[in-house]
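During the second half of the funding period, the structural biology subgroup turned its attention to how the target accommodates small molecules. The most pressing case was NAP, which had performed well in the primary screen but for which no bound structure existed. We therefore specified the complex as follows and requested a full 3D prediction, including the ligand pose.
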Amino acid sequence: MTIDLTGKHALVTGGSRGIGSRLARALHDAGAQVVIFYNRTDAGALARQMQGAGAPVHAVRCDVENREDIRRAVEEALALLDGRIDILINAAGINRRYYLDEFPMEEWDKVININLNAVVYCTQLVGRTMLEHGYGKIINLASMNSFVAAQRVGAYVASKGAIAQITKAFANEWGGRGIRVNAIAPGYIKTDMTAALQENESAYQEILKKIPLERWGTPEDLVGPVLLLASDASDYVNGIVMPIDGGYLTR
Ligand code: NAP
């Protein structure tokens, strides 16, 4: 089955690198117009290259740690997308590694602000316009740490546990108004975020031992499930947190 998103308008936060960038490309390859939010990694050239001869792709700067910036950037995205966003992927995220007894509280706040509060605010602003149109597909980035709790990443665990719960809460609130809210929970994916773990041979092997498919994931592994959740093929799917983890959670 081929997923066709021709005519759909998509917004992807964290679209400049890693998972968000791959998912933005996947939505575009399926026919969607896309706005990519980036912060430190200028995504202008990426957007031009992604667009090629296809539907328009725009890059908009947005520091999701800053609520005013989110408001401005969502307005800009709506203007670029003729006032309609059909698909929202909340992919921007960070991690910080400290044991709780050493965790600087400003770093804790940063993780919660970017991974949780920004997702809530983006979802509220974009969701309001989806409600006006009676249609929307929202996909959040949960994690293995939505289900289990790794060490030294307490703020990340807290934020991703909350992502699983707000996915269900908003799916419950908006399901009757044409909006589906779901999350994917990737396993260990090779991106900049996990570079330190990949470079630490014993940590890398330790994680590998827990993956029945015997390999780490790549952003590519997330494309099929996300296209499904973004398309009308999953219209009766609402409020799920879908592990895409090579079976990690089974061990
Ligand atoms: P990544 O390669 O480190 O990319 C992070 C993205 O988030 C970048 O596009 C970055 O944009 C953006 N970002 C960070 N801070 C931002 C800010 N203040 N404002 C706006 N954008 C900001 O990470 P990734 O691995 O692709 O992760 C993407 C999502 O998947 C995250 O939510 C992560 O928690 C989740 N996830 C990842 C894994 C994994 O194993 N990699 C597993 C489960 C879930 P700029 O570079 O432009 O600043």
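Two results from this model are relevant to the next phase. The domain at 9-189+218-246 is CATH 3.40.50.720 (Rossmann fold). The first strand starts at residue 9 and ends at 13.
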